[in-house]
């Protein structure tokens, strides 16, 4: 089994770069440009700790051929986001990425709109998770910071939960309440022995409070960084996010 990377930089959360929307831009015109493999190489040079890619059932961005090329181009661990289907599990087992993150998926959605309902699928998910674990692949579940979902994640055999930060990112005046939910969820998950990740909707402006949570081992960020790269370049965008994450955690430890 591939060893789990330690939390990077003396307790600072790892930064996983999601390059899906590099492929979205490529697919808008067809052809091969911009190539997500080039983005993966640049992300590694900029200090990202991992690469995240979502192979959707409708293949709207990352394609099957992209994944082995990404894995060959960089030594960064690949976190493969996927739906809980037999097809996707078979692909993951064949590729053997460092980790998979099981996410909900609907064809009509623009992006992942919420967390996985592990409570509803508690009988089904072990059928998908078991073979992945047997293949030496680390398994994460993308869920909201709901106590019932976190408990169910343990029951189905997940090793990691990635807390959906979309409600926090969109909370407006309710941001403190949503941050409290994330704080409580992270503490609960860690207390149950799960590694805790977070992601969705995080930007330069809102990442610090989440990065400061002591249980967070990894943040997965994509759409914002790809968009920011249009203006400042990918290495600059990733480098700034990397610094903001480190500063937030270090400030929390010092306070």
Structure notes:
This protein has one domain: Alpha-Beta Barrel (TIM Barrel). The protein is built from twelve helices and eight strands. It has helices at 8-11, 20-29, 36-46, 66-73, 86-95, 125-134, 147-155, 166-169, 175-191, 207-211, 223-232, 234-254; strands at 14-18, 50-54, 78-82, 99-102, 138-143, 160-164, 195-199, 216-221. It has an eight-stranded parallel barrel, surrounded by eight helices. The chain is globular, with a radius of gyration of 17 Å.
Report the CATH superfamily. Answer: Aldolase class I
Nearest-integer average pLDDT: 93
As a percent range, the share of helical residues equals 40-55%
Strand order of the largest sheet: 1-2-3-4-5-6-7-8
N→C terminal distance: 37 Å
CATH topology: TIM Barrel
Secondary structure tally, helices: 12
Please give the largest β-sheet. Answer: 8 strands, parallel, barrel
- Overall structural domain count: 1
Spans of at least 5 consecutive residues whose pLDDT stays below 50 are 1-9
Order of helices and strands: HEHHEHEHEHEHEHHEHEHH
Number of strand elements: 8
Class by alpha and beta content? alpha/beta
Q: What's the CATH class label?
A: Alpha Beta
Radius of gyration: 17 Å
Q: How big a fraction of the residues is strand?
A: 15-25%
The shape is globular
Name the descriptors:
255 residues, alpha/beta, TIM Barrel, eight-stranded parallel barrel, 8 strands, 47% helix, disordered N terminus
Short overview:
The chain has helices at 8-11, 20-29, 36-46, 66-73, 86-95, 125-134, 147-155, 166-169, 175-191, 207-211, 223-232, 234-254; strands at 14-18, 50-54, 78-82, 99-102, 138-143, 160-164, 195-199, 216-221. The protein is an alpha/beta fold and 255 residues long. The longest helix is centred in the last third of the chain and has 21 residues, at 234-254.
